[in-house]
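Private note to self, pasted from the team thread so I don't lose it. Backbone tokens:
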């Protein structure tokens, strides 16, 4: 299995769409693009298209083998150091393009947790500097497909990449329009009922929290959400914190739960009296069970509800909740969206093609490509 190399035409279409519609690149702006060997064709296309718009791009390149040489020789802390000259460039950047690296995420996930933390030791300083600079940017999921991870997920690399290409081309303005009535209904509502012929019949509660809309456009106006400086592409999601005391019924998932190192499939969650009574999986359940055992208080309470909007995705790794018509219910922490649950645990199940009612009124949802 090898990395799929995009055609020049495909790479150009994607680069043009992201720079024009997601980031609204202007002439004269300074653009910084991260690149690894597996993402270099995308980086080159982005740089070429930026120049066509009379912007000024530079590519920051990291070699995969050289990176792992340093890790294997005990240099994780060095790789996680906030380098002054790189931050100087960041301070002069208007638009930033991030693509996932290193490519071998399976190898990364096998490292001890402390070593993984060392590798991203620069992260908080990076976002603090980026906010001070006022840059906007995007995290391109096109950097995530990699042979070892595709094998772990059981997803053909080409299929995964093709979906990401199509999903990245969806107009963020259209996603924003689709999100608006859903967000308004979730903001006003009190009870949500989710039903599907597969046995799903679950009622959860809303507590008046403001929904968060992810439409593929960066947000630079909220200092409490520094990660929103970089929009995820593909995107398309409305997400809201749930009432932690309300959940009764059953959710039978028909979409995969993609974890960093593998997948859990065929989840069934049973709720009673605002608590998770049981969680069963057809496969991969240990990825839920292990962290759940350490999740502490709140691990069994409802956390988040989200509704996907992107019509080009279908059971797409790491974006399974963004597929049009995908309804996600989580248990565990929801403080990041204004909820009260501070558990470090986050577990979820997704049913696509369900009907959703808010306070007895049907909510119009985009339809998934297949249920």
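Design output:
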């Amino acid at each position: 299995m090898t990395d799929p190399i995009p055609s020049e035409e495909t790479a150009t279409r994607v680069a043009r769409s992201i720079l024009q519609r997601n980031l609204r690149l202007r002439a004269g702006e300074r653009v910084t693009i991260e690149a690894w060997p597996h993402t270099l064709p995308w980086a080159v296309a982005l740089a070429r298209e930026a120049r066509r718009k009379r912007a000024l791009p530079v590519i920051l390149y990291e070699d995969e083998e050289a990176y792992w040489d340093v890790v294997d020789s005990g240099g994780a802390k060095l790789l996680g150091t906030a380098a002054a000259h790189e931050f100087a460039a960041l301070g002069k950047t208007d638009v930033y393009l991030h693509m996932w690296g290193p490519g071998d995420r399976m190898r990364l996930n096998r490292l001890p947790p402390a070593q993984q933390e060392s590798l991203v030791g620069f992260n908080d300083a990076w976002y603090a500097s980026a906010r001070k600079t006022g840059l906007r940017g995007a995290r391109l999921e096109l950097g995530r497909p990699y042979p070892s991870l595709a094998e772990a997920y059981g997803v053909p690399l080409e299929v995964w990449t093709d979906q990401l290409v199509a999903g990245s081309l969806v107009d963020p303005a259209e996603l924003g329009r689709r999100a608006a009535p859903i967000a308004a209904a979730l903001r006003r509502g009190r009870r949500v009922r989710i039903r599907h012929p597969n046995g799903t019949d679950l009622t959860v509660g809303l507590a008046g929290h403001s929904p968060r809309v992810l439409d593929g456009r960066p947000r630079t106006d909220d200092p409490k959400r520094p990660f929103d400086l970089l929009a995820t592409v593909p995107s398309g999601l409305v997400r809201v914190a749930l009432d932690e005391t309300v959940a009764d019924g059953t959710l039978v998932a028909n979409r995969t739960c993609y974890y960093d190192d593998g997948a859990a499939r065929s989840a069934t969650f049973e709720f009673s009296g605002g608590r998770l009574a049981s969680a069963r999986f057809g496969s991969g359940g240990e990825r839920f069970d292990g962290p759940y055992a350490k999740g502490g208080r709140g691990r069994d309470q409802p956390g988040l509800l989200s509704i996907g909007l992107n019509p080009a995705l279908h059971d797409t790794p790491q974006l399974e909740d963004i597929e049009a018509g995908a309804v996600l219910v989580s248990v565990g922490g929801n403080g990041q969206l204004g909820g009260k649950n501070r558990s470090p645990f986050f577990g979820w199940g997704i049913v696509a093609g369900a009907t959703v009612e808010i306070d007895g009124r049907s909510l119009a949802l985009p339809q998934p490509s297949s249920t």
